[in-house]
Amino acid sequence: MHDVASGLAVARADFLDFRHSLIDVMRGDFSQISMGLLSLITRAQGFHDGALRGIEYDNPYATFPLIRCYAENAAVLLWILDHPQDLSRLSSSARPDERFAIGRLISNAAKRARGFKGLYEQLSEFSHPVATGFHQPWRVVPDEERTLQWSSVPSFKTTEDKIWACFWLVELTEIHANVWSSAYRASVLSPPTR
To answer: Which of 7, 56, 122, 144 has the fewest CB neighbours in a 10 Å radius?
Structure first.
C-alpha cells in the first residue's frame, strides 16, 4: 500500500477473496452452526464496507469505530476457535448472563493475535470522546501566526491515517480468513451445548 487508492483496492480484494473462500468450506451446509458463523460474515462485511466508505468520504468518525467493530468480530471468531461449544452465546435466545463480555473477547484475541491489543486500544481511543478523537476537528494552520482552525465537517488529519485504516482492515480480514474455516470445523465437531 503506497497510497489511499491502493490501500482501498487491497482491502476490497482481500475481503472478496475471503468471502469467496467460504464457498469451499460451507459446501451447502445451512445448519444452526453455519448460520451463526455466516452471520458473523454478514457483520464483517457491513463493518468492512462501511469503513471503506468512511475512508472514501474522508470521515474518520465513521471509519475508526467501524474498524473497531470489525476487530470485535474477529475477536469472536478467535474465541469460537478456542471454545466452539460457545457459539450459542451469539444467539438472540442467549440470556444476558450468557452473552459475551467484550473485554474477555479482546483479552483472548490479544493472546492469539500479536498486536491485536494495541490496535484495539488505538481504535477505542479514537472512538471514545477522549484525546485522539476529541481533537480531530482542530488544525493548526502553518502560517506565521499558527492560526487554530475548527471544522464541523469530519475529515482525516492526514493521508497516512487513511492508509493506516486500510492496513488495519487488511490485517483484520487476514484474521477472519485464517480463523473462520477452522472455527467452523471446530464448531461442527464440538456443537454448541444449547
So the answer is: 144
Domain assignment of residue 161, yes or no: yes
Secondary structure of residue 149 in the 3-state scheme: strand
In tens, the pLDDT along 108-147 reads: 999 999 999 999 999 998 888 776 667 777 778 887 777 8
Q: How many domains does the chain fold into?
A: 1
The answer to whether position 194 is within a domain reads: no
64, part of any domain? yes
52-66 pLDDT per residue, tens: 999 999 999 999 999
pLDDT at 29: 65
Return the DSSP state at 139.
E
Give dist(CA 100, CA 143) in Å, integer. 51
Local structure of residue 128 (DSSP, 8 states): T
